[in-house]
Structure formats: C-alpha cells, structure tokens
What we know:
single chain, two-stranded antiparallel sheet
Amino acid sequence: MKKTALIAIIFSILAVFFAYTYFSNLESTYRTMAEPVSVVVANRRITQGAVITKEMLAEKKVPKEYVQPKAFAAINNLFTKEGTAVYISLNAVEAGEQIMSTKVSKTNAETGIVNIIPEGYKALAVNFDADSSNVITPGSRIDILSIIEYADTNNKMQESIFMIAQNILVLAVGNNYIGSVNKNDDNGRRGSVITLAVTVEEAQTIMLAADNGSLKYIIRPEGDNEIYNIKPLKISDVIKDISRTVPQQKSAFGNDKEIMKAVNQSQKEALEIINRYANSQK
C-alpha cells in the first residue's frame, strides 16, 4: 500500500513538472511572438511601377507574429549608402502595408527591363507614333484603342474605334524604363516604341488590332484602376451617310484597287463633313 502511494506521489510530481515546463515554454513562445519588432510600411499608397522614395515609407513597431515574410526591417535597407532610391514597386502597395522584397525590384542600367515585369505578365513592345509617345512616361497607366476599317454586313465600308485594353502599365518608353535614368535617342526623342505589361490574352488582342488598324492610347489619372464598359463607336454614329458600298469583285487585282479607292474617298468625304461642321460652330 505504501509502495502504491509512493508511486502515485512520484507520478503527480512528474505531471506537475511537465505541466510547468509545457506552460513555461508556451508562455516564452507567446512572449517572443508578441515582442514588438520594426518593419517598413507604406505611409501612402504606392502605385505599381513607382520608384520608392523615403517620403513614401515609415518604420512601425508590430508584434513579431504579424511580420510578413521577407518584410524590410529598416528604411535604409531600400536605399544606397548615399540615400539613392534603387527599388521600384512591382505591385501596388496600400497605405500601412508592409514593404516586402517580393513586391519590389532593384533596377539599374545593368538589370534591364526583365526584372520589372510584374508577376503573371509579359512585356509587349508596341509601336505608337513618336509625337504622342513623348507625352507618356514609364510607370503611367493607359487604355488602348484601335481604329479599324471594315466592310459591314450590308457591304458598306465602316470605320470604328474599339477599346481593346484597359489599365495597362507602361514599363518603358523607348530606352527609358521604370527606375532608369531618362535617355533620348539620336533625334532627341525618347522613341515611339512603348513597352507594356500585359497578359497573354491582352497581347493577342493588341497585336491583332495593330495588324489590322491603327493604335491610340489615353493616359489614366493617378489612382484610376476602374475597368469601364465602353461600346465600339462607328464613324457613321457620329456623322451620317458617309459609308460607301464595297465594289463587287471583277478580278482579284481590280477588286483590291477599287476597295482602296472607295476607302480613301470615304475618308476624304468624312473629313470634309467634319471640317464643315467645325467651321459652322465658330
């Protein structure tokens, strides 16, 4: 009987010891996880493709358990010893969000454009006219429109404008890409080729439209990320009775020649009508 009681006492002591050890370790773990540590957060919204400056950042104390993987611990870690900005944002960062190395990229003359393509996107070079390309900068967001001429179901030549892509990030303009020092080409211009971050589907649409018509773009204001439902617009919706019938085929060569003549005549008449309308409003 005494032996049984002794064994019970020993097991009781061991149980208390293990329970104490377990809870002590648990308390230590929670104390460690709750320990405040410093992380870098955005003190304002940082748009995708923006060069990250010190004015955009702040250091904040948060419990260690809430620190995101690969988050920067100090602002100085994002800059050179001289304080020069070397990182750009690969994705938009909201105010208060932690800055993580997976969402930024270091860029310089050696790294090139491949390091600034956002995850899930490809880079597509599109040839816009040089004059309009001079007003856009890397990091801008644009909507792309296509103007296409075609014969409708009534065998009438139509000219329509279509919205084919929206909220597209501009990675580069000519030789200038996000985060690089601005450079001009030999003519003092930045070049007409604009490199865009697009999905494969967007690339297909843009390339098909470029091959069958002309491309234009409009620049979005800062913070505008909305996708709009925009219907195609025909020139005949703006100015009536300007479409012409496509000539019937006489021969393969003659047909092509007559179609081009009809299209050119239609464009000339449309411009004359628009000019007369514009002059009447003065």
